[in-house]
Structures are given as structure tokens and as C-alpha cells.
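Weekly puzzle thread! Below is a chain. First person to post its structure in C-alpha cell form gets bragging rights.
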Amino acid sequence: MEKRCLWCLESEPNVTFLKKAHTIPKSLGGQNFNQNICDDCNEFFGNRKNSFTSIEEALKETFNITRQRILLANNPKRKVGPFKSKYFDIKDRNGKKRLIIKSSFRFDSKFQTELCRSFKRGLYKMFFEEFNRQKGTGYENKYDIIRKFSRYNEGDLPVYYFIRSMPVMLLKANEGETPILFFERMNYLYNNDSFAEIEFLGHVFGFPITQFEKEDLIKYQRKSFEVKEKFFRNCIKIEYMTDVDFTLQIMND
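Winning reply:
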């Protein structure tokens, strides 16, 4: 059967499908592959191009902090490689692991905005490839806004981050080792025809998956919080990477 790329919509023999395309970056422990990603598109997400960080690198740098926090709280069954990051370090001080922020991670608006944009495009990348792998859909024209933003850097799409009201997170025993992207993990994840929500390493995000009107957004937010009021206290539209609690400070509350 002729393969067709989920991103560029090209088919064999115009494009090749020789390499394994991890839906979740291998550097984060991802184990699943999507066979419908051509080699060119697969390579694109790992390349820096004109940005100081690649899309997959933005995912790794952010979620690796969360992953390490989860791994340190548990005894991993599988040996996980040493922590590596160009923005952060983890030091052992007085028997406690501490997060050290390197000078390469800046707090100025330009750096935060650009890193956040790569991160958002990466979230869409993980979502769309897992959505296609799990549901067998994604080629419809309604999803072109995802292709344009994540693959071709056109336009801008909002991503909403849900802030928990309590530190309780139900995680699988080996979730820090081999993270899974969930669409329907808990009944607080709300999805409709225009918006989707995902949970990844304890973080919950929501975003549009097709064209929408202001009224659609208002309705989505209202419905979403109706099922989240017991678990989450707020929802923010992320603009900077510091908007995301990637160090899981909520666990200290």
C-alpha cells in the first residue's frame, strides 16, 4: 500500500519512508513510531534551521526537567541515561537534588517567546503524530492549520496550560521512563470537533485543531472547566516557557 506523509501530504515515490519517526522524541524515552512520516519531515523537526533550538530540542529541554523530577521520585526499573541539557543541570547538594539554571536559559522576552513557539509547535507535532497513529486519521483538510503551524511555521495557534489545584497526579509506574501521550486518560480531559486536550508527564494542555471562531473558544473553555473544577484552578494561554510548571513545583505545595 502506497504511503502518504501526514505532514507534507506527499506519497511514494516522491518521498521516502526509510527511517523510524518517533512520535515522542527518543531523547524523552519515546518508544512509539508513526509510519506515515516521510524522511524529510521527520528530519525537519530535529533540525534547528534558522532557530537557536529545534522543535524536538525545545520539547526535550522542557519535558526532561519534568521527567527527571518524576524519575527521582521513583526507582526506575529501566536504566535511564544521564541527564543532559544545555539550559539546566541537576546538582546533588547536602543529599538533595537541586535544579540549576544555566546562563544559556535567559528570561528576556525574545528568548522566551522564540523558545515557547518552538515548544508549541512541538506539542502539536507530538499530538498530531500520535493522533494519527492511534486514531488512523489526520489527512483531512480541517487539520491543515496544524500542518501550517507545526511543520511550516505559518501563523500562530494558541496553546492553553491548565494549572492544577492539587499536587496529586496519577502516573503509571514507568511513565518517567517511557512517557505516553494521553487523549482520554481522565474524565477531566475534554475534546470536541475543534479543540483537543492532552496529558503528558502530568501536564495538561488544550489547543485548537481546526479553524474556530471566538464563540467556539468561549464554549470550549466553559465546557472544559465544567469537568476540571475539582482538579484545576486556572487556565493560561502560554506565551513564555516560564508559563509552564515544568519543574513540577505544584508537588511542593
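Puzzle host: Confirmed. Bonus trivia for everyone else. The chain has a mean pLDDT of 88.
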